[in-house]
């Protein structure tokens, strides 16, 4: 369950802020923070270089469940004194020190299917190749950079599998794209999965630790991304992106 704390929440959306049947992340956040609903009436459809930032929205409700099991689970407690912050006019105002940013991923038409070791299946290579095309990677990087560059906000970014549901995005690519964007913006990133103990998250954590330990740079990661795209194009890839980066970080791939 999402509980209001001092984080910069990332909300995944489409460019028109449509809601869908069943309560997913965006429907849940806008339900428990109803002040956010005003954004649907005062905002234009998002362009490729735009994101929507909302600050000061209070969480009024607790909840439990997800999708069709989502339900109200009581009111939030009164705002504690520790959450009182100063506005720009230096006037005390009771509000939670959280920010919410809405940004849309590029919508692909075919889902990527992986095996139990998160390697792309043969029938998914074509769909994966499209996502790793440079123009599509740049689009997603720019979108994430805009979303993570909220002025006057240096809190940890709380995010997850952006564009990996109905928009068919590759989970490993979206993880790395958001990690690059957070690094460029000088922000820490807290990544979440609906599963309590996600094997893919553990593999991603292992990859991050290896990259940090070997003191690789953002530029290095981006070059490896392009190498992976080339391998997909000639059908020579035998692993997912996380393992590909791990392989190069350890100096074992040629």
Describe it for me?
Residues 1-7 and 83-96 have low confidence and may be disordered. By secondary structure, this protein is α/β, with parallel strands linked by helices. Helices cover 35% and strands 15% of the residues. The protein is built from 8 helices and 9 strands. A 5-stranded mixed beta sheet has the order 2-7-1-8-9, sandwiched between helices. A two-stranded antiparallel sheet has the order 3-4. A two-stranded antiparallel sheet has the order 5-6. It starts with 7 loop residues before the first strand and ends in a 5-residue tail after the last helix.
Question: What's the short story on this structure?
Answer:
The protein has helices spanning about 25-30, 40, 125-130, 135-150, 170-185, 200-215, 220-235, 240-250, and strands at about 10-15, 50-55, 60-65, 70-75, 85, 90-95, 100-105, 155-160, 190.
Key words describing this protein structure:
single chain; 254 residues; 8 helices; 9 strands; 15% strand; disordered N terminus
């Amino acid at each position: 369950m999402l509980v209001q704390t001092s984080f910069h929440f990332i909300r995944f959306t489409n460019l028109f802020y449509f809601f869908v049947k069943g309560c997913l992340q965006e429907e849940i956040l806008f339900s428990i923070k109803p002040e956010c609903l005003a954004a649907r009436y005062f905002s234009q459809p998002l362009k490729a270089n735009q994101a929507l930032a909302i600050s000061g929205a209070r969480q009024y409700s607790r909840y439990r469940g997800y999708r069709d099991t989502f339900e109200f689970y009581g009111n939030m407690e009164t705002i504690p004194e520790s959450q009182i912050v100063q506005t720009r006019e230096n006037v005390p105002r009771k509000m939670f020190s959280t920010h919410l940013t809405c940004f849309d991923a590029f919508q692909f038409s075919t889902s990527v299917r992986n095996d139990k070791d998160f390697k792309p299946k043969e029938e998914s290579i074509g769909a994966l190749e499209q996502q790793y095309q440079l123009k599509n990677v740049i689009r997603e990087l720019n979108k994430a950079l805009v979303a993570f560059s909220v002025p006057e906000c240096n809190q940890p970014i709380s995010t997850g599998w952006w564009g990996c549901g109905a928009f068919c995005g590759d989970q490993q690519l979206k993880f790395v794209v958001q990690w690059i964007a957070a690094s460029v913006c000088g922000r820490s990133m807290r990544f979440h999965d609906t599963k309590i103990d996600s094997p893919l998250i553990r593999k991603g954590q292992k990859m991050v630790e290896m990259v940090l330990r070997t003191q690789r740079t953002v530029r290095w990661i981006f070059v490896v991304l392009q190498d992976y795209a080339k391998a997909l194009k000639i059908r020579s890839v035998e692993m997912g992106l996380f393992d590909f980066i791990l392989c190069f970080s350890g100096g074992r791939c040629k």
